[in-house]
């Protein structure tokens, strides 16, 4: 929990990792890609404040003790949601798998939520694995990487018929939240494989699922906003938005936040630190202190209130994941996770500049 000026903020980090990018895990013959991937992350890491930057060796693989310090001791985080990223084409044991993440459940208990994943290119075996993971880890969410390589394939779309089979299975298994990486590419993946266009049709066809578009489709922020405003089950995942832009690109950060607040609304925005690309501490504190600039260029954007920040930093995600919030942190109410009908949120004034 973070407290400032008498206000208490319940913090849910909805997008975090516990990865293994150590050299020992680089797959023989694919070392170039394994190194390229983590080097790209390390480049993004430099966009945080200088005092928060790590040396490269530490960045490759952290310990559970370091994770605890950064998240729950220093980072103000009450609940962290692990998002899995497999990349088994380049990392022998996977970069950040369900099994790796789940190793921390015993130590940190209900402070952690482990999300699964699926890859529709794995066919029947993949469906069985999803079913087994859902049962073993009581999955409430999955993370999808539509640009991930798999053999000769360099990506897939949510609208692929095989992907629809997996989404139907996810619903059947009680999984509610589908996090989709749609944003900045990471070498050597292809930028266009992260296009947000396939979320539009899929969200319409699966209104019982919540689609959290991680990194808000950057650099396609306008495409994302104009799609999300008319899909009541599409949410803006702010990982990368705060980590990469709040410190290094403050004017662009203000524009992105302004567009999201105007079109998507404060009830559908979820904080995520993207740990350990960046630590949550400076992002949480910075977002609580942040306000839309008074410059003329930003006057037609909504301003953030204390209530807005409480929703974005934790209450929205808590509602999507049925996380119990302490009584003194529950206000204000949010419509996140409610089964609104298409365009109902516009009629009710919950988005479209009515934040």
Textual characterization of the structure:
With 355 residues, the chain is α/β, with parallel strands linked by helices. 38% of the residues lie in helices and 11% in strands. The longest helix is centred in the N-terminal third of the chain and has 15 residues, at 31-45. The chain is globular. It starts with a strand and ends in a 7-residue tail after the last helix. The mean pLDDT is 94.
The main pleated sheet reads as: 5 strands, parallel
* Average pLDDT, all residues: 94
Which of globular, elongated, flat, extended, rod-shaped describes the shape?
A: globular
Number of strands: 10
What low-confidence regions span 5 or more consecutive residues with pLDDT below 50?
none
**Which sequence of strands runs across the widest sheet?**
6-7-8-9-10
Q: Which structural category fits the helices and strands?
A: alpha/beta
CA-to-CA gap between the ends? 24 Å
Instruction: Count helical runs.
Output: 14
User: How big is the Rg?
Assistant: 19 Å
Q: Percent range for helical residues?
A: 25-40%
Strand content: 5-15%
- Series of H and E elements: EEEHHHEHHEHEHEHEHEHHEHHH
Write the layout of secondary structure elements.
Blueprint (H helix, E strand, L loop, with lengths): L1 E3 L2 E3 L2 E5 L14 H15 L10 H5 L3 H10 L5 E4 L15 H5 L2 H4 L3 E3 L8 H15 L3 E4 L16 H12 L4 E5 L15 H9 L4 E5 L6 H8 L5 E4 L3 H6 L3 H15 L4 E2 L9 H10 L16 H15 L23 H5 L7
Parallel strand pairs: 3-4, 4-5, 6-7, 7-8, 8-9, 9-10
Antiparallel strand pairs: 1-2
């Amino acid at each position: 929990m973070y407290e400032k000026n008498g206000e208490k903020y319940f913090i849910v980090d909805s997008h975090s990792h516990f990865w293994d990018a150590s050299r020992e895990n680089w797959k023989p013959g694919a070392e170039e890609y394994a190194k390229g991937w983590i080097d790209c992350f390390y480049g993004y890491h430099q966009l945080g404040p200088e005092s928060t930057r790590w040396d490269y060796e530490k960045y490759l693989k952290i310990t559970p003790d370091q994770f605890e310090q950064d998240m729950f001791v220093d980072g103000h985080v009450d609940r962290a949601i692990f998002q899995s990223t497999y990349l088994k084409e380049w990392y022998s044991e996977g970069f950040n798998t369900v099994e790796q993440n789940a190793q921390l459940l015993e130590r940190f208990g209900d402070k952690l939520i482990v999300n699964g994943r699926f890859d529709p290119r794995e066919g029947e075996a993949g469906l069985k694995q999803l079913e087994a993971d859902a049962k073993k880890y009581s999955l409430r969410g999955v993370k999808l990487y539509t640009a991930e390589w798999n053999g000769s394939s360099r990506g897939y779309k949510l609208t692929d018929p095989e992907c629809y089979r997996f989404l139907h299975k996810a619903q059947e298994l009680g999984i509610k939240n589908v996090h989709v990486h749609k944003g900045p590419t990471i070498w050597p993946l292809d930028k266009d494989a992260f296009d947000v266009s396939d979320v539009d049709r899929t969200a319409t066809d699966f209104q019982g699922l919540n689609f959290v578009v991680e990194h808000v489709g950057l650099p396609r922020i306008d495409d994302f906003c104009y799609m999300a405003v008319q899909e009541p089950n599409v949410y803006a995942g702010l990982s990368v938005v705060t980590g990469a832009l709040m410190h290094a690109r403050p004017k662009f950060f203000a524009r992105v936040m302004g567009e999201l607040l105007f079109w998507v609304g404060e009830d559908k925005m979820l904080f995520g630190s993207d740990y350990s690309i960046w630590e949550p501490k400076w992002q949480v504190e910075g977002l609580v202190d942040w306000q839309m600039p008074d410059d003329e260029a930003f006057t037609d954007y909504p301003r953030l209130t204390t209530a807005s920040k409480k929703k974005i930093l934790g209450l929205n995600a808590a509602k999507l994941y049925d996380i119990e919030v302490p009584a003194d942190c529950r206000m204000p109410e949010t419509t996140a996770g409610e089964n609104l009908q298409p365009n109902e949120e516009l009629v009710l004034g919950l988005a479209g500049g009515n934040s």
